[in-house]
Amino acid sequence: MKIVIDTSVWISALIIKESQVREILRLVFIGKLHPQMGEALYREYESVMKRKKIQKLTVLSHCEQEELFCAFLNNCQWNGMYYSWRPNLKDEDDNFLVELAVASNAKVILTYNEKDFKESELLFNHKVITPENFIKEMQ
User: Fold this and answer.
1) Could you tell me the pTM of the whole model?
2) What's the pLDDT at 84?
3) Residues 6 or more apart in contact with residue 46 via CB below 8 angstroms
4) Is the pLDDT of residue 6 over 80?
5) Which segments of 6-139 are extended strands (E)?
6) Which positions ≥6 away from 82 have C-beta within 8 Å?
7) In the structure, how many helices (H) and strands (E) does the chain have?
């Protein structure tokens, strides 16, 4: 299944030792989930991971973070953006996630910011859900 993983979800995997996000990553690494990646999402991941506040909270060493990130990226499908769909979300910075989901034909956007996606002016064929609810639905 093609999915888009919001930065909030990725960062929680770094800072929360026992979370459902670790299960999401396990499913990625065994090939059951296929995360989609684009330029904007990649840059956001990198930027947020380097924040001092995040570095202080993470349970992983810098080297472990880099190894995990590289392994994750090796499992991502890269997508180019050829159209700019502006669903006009409450948080403008989330629009690129919808664009990535549309460009890649992803079925799910995993995020901890579901409410920011609810008032979209454009509707597409993907679900916006938290990792915990996603895991529950998969069982």
Assistant:
1) 0.89
2) 64
3) none
4) yes
5) 34-37, 77-78, 108-110, 127-129
6) 103
7) 8, 5
